[in-house]
């Protein structure tokens, strides 16, 4: 009681070297990156976040003016039952290479506030992504999102994507925001 584990510097130092991290019922944290580790979790390979009622995003910079390097070795991201998760990485966040460059698998289930999985500017970092599994996210509209759909150029590329599983997504509109032929949207192009 009255001990705020995520605000302790010693705990944040441990997060710098950890390779596998399970945060279960770890409430009181709204932004994983800025509240738990400012060095981008440089060694983290597997991240599991389960049953969290407070987290809104993994990375949401406040008053940051330079690009951030985040999760450079992350291979597996598993998000389960995160009630308030709205985004993985906020639109105001600028990332630098090798952020998310080794991510191979992303699994998301029962994240009712999530509207999209990736913003379009994050896709260029996802060169190793092999598997996307998303299920039972009642607010999810698309996998890739862009606020301003008029600024798009070319098609999205996930060069290693081999497995895509989308289940029970009642608000789902399409994979990405790219429109073809006057307001026509198709799942893949």
TrEMBL record:
Domain of life: Eukaryota
Key words of the record: Plant defense
Gene3D superfamilies found in the cross-reference section: Ribonuclease Inhibitor
Transmembrane annotation, as ranges: none
Record flagged with keyword Flavoprotein: no
Chain segments annotated as coiled-coil in the UniProt record: none
Domain Disease resistance protein At4g27190-like leucine-rich repeats: 80-170
A Pfam match: LRR_RPS2
InterPro entries named among the record's database cross-references: At4g27190-like_LRR, LRR_dom_sf, Plant_NBS-LRR
Protein name: Disease resistance protein At4g27190-like leucine-rich repeats domain-containing protein
